[in-house]
């Protein structure tokens, strides 16, 4: 009788343990499924962010290449123009004298135009 009750108790304990193990397994599978779905969603978001970042990088790299080309051509043009602006073959005094002559000629032309407007073609050059 004692042995029989031990077997019955063991069977009941085993059934209860199996039921508990089944519940635990179901809870584990549910939690694992949620965790897996969360991880997959996070991975898809990271992949989308990576693709967006790569697209922006390619666009920025293309823009950099374009701007670098513009800069190179501008520098080349500047280097070509520099000798014409700096190396005129004239001294500072010669440039000042030439500028003063040009200013005097422009003042005379302004005077002539003013006289022409005032006196007509006959009095255009008088007094300038």
Mean of residue pLDDT?
90
Q: Kindly report how far apart the N and C termini lie.
A: 148 Å
The total count of helices amounts to 2
Strand segment count: 0
- Approximately how much helix is present in the residues? over 70%
Write the H/E string, N to C: HH
Poorly predicted spans: none
Main beta sheet: strand number and arrangement? none
| Rg, nearest Å | 48 Å
What general outline do the C-alpha atoms trace? rod-shaped
Structural class: mainly alpha
Beta-strand residue fraction = under 5%
Give structural notes.
Helices cover 88% and strands 0% of the residues. The chain is an all-alpha fold. It has helices at residues 2-86, 92-119.
Q: What is the topological layout?
A:
Layout lengths: L1 H85 L5 H28 L9
Quick structural gist:
By secondary structure, the protein is mainly alpha-helical. It has helices at residues 2-86, 92-119.
List its salient traits.
about 130 residues; mainly alpha; about 90% helix
